[in-house]
Design goal:
single chain, mainly alpha, two-stranded antiparallel sheet
């Protein structure tokens, strides 16, 4: 394989956000979360209260990368091309998602022998599983099989809406205006009402900031860059002004992440493991960077699989009798093992399922 350029901030944010979400769910569910909080109350409480904000990073990154991909397409004015792009996105998400669902169902079945907790849920039904296959579980009001899979459904909705808007408004000025209206409406109204949390409008604010960040920096037309920067700055003013009434940390975080992508999102580096011409001592200096790239590639699979290990960690903790003794240190040890196991399993899901499934295209 030839060396290939990657982008350090993009890969770091993907790895970091996935790790924080895994830790957030470990600090939120089951007996191990309760007992670990007694040992490290500050850290566990912080992860429980603020770890969920890592979703904003995912959303901004999703918009940034989707815009990078979709703005290169020249045939989105054709409705068939738009439909093909949307369906190919579904296929890209589908294979590792289905395998992760099956693994989670198996782990939940095991957990029910020992864990009597609401987060394990009732036995899954065929209708519930089918709804998950078509990303409809939230819209239909069904319980989620795994924590976090709602995001996969939302990501597909947002990607589809972005493709449709680019097809409807090929002139980028009109597209940016429509996107900005949706973005501001989401940030100031829809994102503050739980009624809309199963629909794209609830999340399009952060996603739209990622799209604008991409257009500000990397779109080849300078006039689009300038107009996007003006609009992006205006959205920032709106966020600051609304903060005088009520501070919404997730909106501020989304804007900060999008701003960072504008300044440093194109900070490129090479995958040293693929560059065999470099001397060995030089490649050792890049172990950290290559570790970030390794995690970035597997972040989606780790995100999908980690809830299975939350279930198994709680099962072991209670099944071995540690839950009755409230052994907080062992709860922390099992949390650490669950994190490592999530990334190891993600490596195999990535290599055996996600990479081969990329050939599934219409």
């Amino acid at each position: 394989m030839q060396s290939k350029n990657h982008f350090l901030l993009v890969d770091f944010l993907k790895t970091f956000a996935a790790l924080i979400i895994i830790l957030h769910h470990l600090s939120s569910y089951g007996q191990i979360a309760e007992d670990a909080r007694k040992v490290l109350p500050g850290l566990m409480t912080w992860l429980f209260e603020y770890g969920r904000y890592a979703v904003q990073i995912f959303l901004v990154m999703g918009g940034y990368l989707a815009a990078q991909s979709l703005t290169r397409s020249r045939d989105l004015q054709n409705p068939r091309a738009v439909l093909k792009v949307i369906l190919n996105r579904y296929l890209r998400l589908f294979a590792p998602y289905v395998v992760a669902l099956i693994v989670t169902i198996a782990c939940a079945w095991v957990a029910r022998f020992w864990v009597q907790d609401e987060f394990v849920g009732q036995s899954e039904t065929l209708g519930q599983f089918l709804a998950h296959l078509f990303f409809l579980q939230g819209i239909l009001g069904l319980d989620s099989i795994s924590a976090g899979v709602w995001y996969v459904a939302i990501d597909w909705q947002l990607y589809a809406i972005l493709a449709i808007l680019l097809g409807m408004f090929p002139g980028f000025r009109s597209f940016i205006w429509i996107l900005t209206v949706c973005c501001v409406a989401s940030l100031l109204y829809f994102n503050r009402l739980g009624t809309y949390e199963n629909y794209f409008i609830y999340f399009v604010g952060a996603y739209g900031l990622g799209v604008l960040a991409q257009l500000c920096k990397n779109y080849p037309d300078p006039s689009v860059n300038r107009f996007s920067k003006m609009v992006f700055f205006a959205v920032g003013v709106v966020i600051v002004a609304s903060s005088f009434q009520q501070v919404w940390l997730r909106n501020i975080l989304a804007y900060v992440v999008a701003t960072a992508l504008i300044f440093w999102g194109d900070w490129a580096y090479k995958d040293q493991r693929q560059d065999h011409k470099r001397p060995q001592h030089h490649s050792r200096e890049h172990k950290l960077v290559n570790g970030i790239l390794w995690g970035s590639r597997r972040s989606y699979c780790a995100f999908l699989l980690h809830f299975s290990f939350v279930l198994l960690a709680n099962s072991l903790y209670i099944g071995w009798g540690m839950g009755q003794r409230h052994e907080g240190v062992m709860a922390l040890v099992l949390m650490f093992i669950a994190v490592i196991a999530s990334w190891i399993a993600a490596n195999y899901l990535y290599r055996w399922v996600e990479v081969p499934s990329r050939h599934l295209k219409l």
